[in-house]
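Running this now, will post back.
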Amino acid sequence: MNELLLDLFDHMTWADAEVHRAIESLPSAYGDKEFRERLHHMHLTQHAFLWIIGRQGDSFRMTTPEDFPSEGDLLLYAKDLHARIGELVRSLSESRLKEAIDVPWFRDPTFNVTVTQALLQVVMHSQHHRAQNASRFRALGGKPPTTDLIMWYWKKKPPPDWPENDLSTGSARR
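Update: finished.
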C-alpha cells in the first residue's frame, strides 16, 4: 500500500477527531446550522466513498443532519466510519488501487475513477470542508484546531484523540 495514501487517511482521522474535540470548547457550534450541515456532509461523503470502494451491499444509507440531533450522535457516525475506512485502506492491494469504480451519483454521463483517485477525493474533500468549518468556527467565536498535514507530521503522526461519547445524553465529552 502506498505510504503517502496511508498517511493521508491517518491524518484525516486525526484531523476529524480534532474538529470534534474543538466542539467541546464551543458547544454552540453544533447548534449552528451551517457548521452542523457541513460537518454532516463531510462524514456522509466519507461514508459514501467507503461504500463504493468497499463494495458494501447494494444500497447506501443516505442520512440527513436531522438524523444526528446531538454532536455525540454525529461523533459516533464519524468514529464508526474512521474505524472501517482505516481497515479498508490498509487492506487494499496495489491491483485494487488501480481498478476502476463507478461513482453512482454521476449518471449523465456515467463516471468511473480508480480506487486511488476515489481515495484522494475523500481526503481532499474532507480537508476542504474542515477548512470551511474552521472559518465558521472562528466566526462563531471559537478557536479552530490546527489540522494541517504538516502539523500532524511535526507532531510525529499522533493517533486520533476522539472525545468520549456519553451514550446516556448523546453528547460528546472529554
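The chain is about 60% helix and 10% strand. More later if anyone needs it.
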